[in-house]
Amino acid sequence: MAINEFIGRSVQLKVERQAAFGYFLSDGDEDVLLHKNDTDLELEEGQEVEVFLYTDSRERIAATTTIPSITTETYGWAEVCDVKPGIGVFINIGINKDMLLGEEDLPVHESVWPNVGDMLYITLRVNRNDRIYVKLATDPIIENISIKATREDFNKNIHGHIYRTAKVGSWIYTAEGFKGFIHESQRKVEPRLGEKVEGRIIDVKEDGTINVSLAPRKEEALDQDSEIIMAYLASRSGTMPYGDKSAPEDIQDRFQMSKASFKRALGRLMKEGKIYQKEGWTYVKEEQ
């Protein structure tokens, strides 16, 4: 095999000669540079060494003795380390050169591109020009590493990373190893690809996959809604021209919540003695 066929993989090569800046390795036909920045080993001529081959910034084949877990033959989780609008995102696989996931393989809208620190399940691919790129895991690949959920997992809290996203919903791989789907109605905003999200299991399907909601549980949502209302009242010296008779569209515009949620939060705050209503207005109750 030609040496370029090992790009993105590990291979055993022989030390042909030493130079001031590293070692030249050979398969018997072609030489590859192992730069001193890519190894902490002291090597001798004639010694065999396992290296990972990649293409450097000048598109030359280079070697490193750091063998990443992610290759053209394996998948793994890796962290996004840089984002370049119009180009793509760069991912750290553990070697000195970061790998590019090009914009053509990312969502159309850059708002759901991964951020630095997000995690993606990936492999490597090499194009016809010997350039090495990142390839995202597809549904069948995620299915191969996932485990089946059971009815006992229903309603449990989960967290995981988004591995695929679309307008209709997002697909998640959880810390437990479950493969799940988040319908667009079960998320306030579309999560980023690679983003870590928290939710709960709202359905376990026959094939062991799950449906997930990112919406807070009713009690948690009630807490949040109550805090939003009290914060708005505080910003208006304790009064506001909204109450349980206000129009739904006015409530949605001002508080980004449904009228039903608004009324539940008002009811709780009145029961707790924090507010009262009068002639369509709501007031903070002064402490006695």
UniProtKB/TrEMBL annotation:
Residues 155-217 form the S1 motif domain. It comes from the Bacteria. Signal peptide: none annotated. It holds the Pfam family CvfB_1st. InterPro entries: CvfB_fam, CvfB_S1_2nd, CvfB_S1_3rd, CvfB_S1_st, CvfB_WH, NA-bd_OB-fold, S1_domain, WH-like_DNA-bd_sf. Belongs to the CvfB family. This is S1 RNA-binding domain-containing protein.
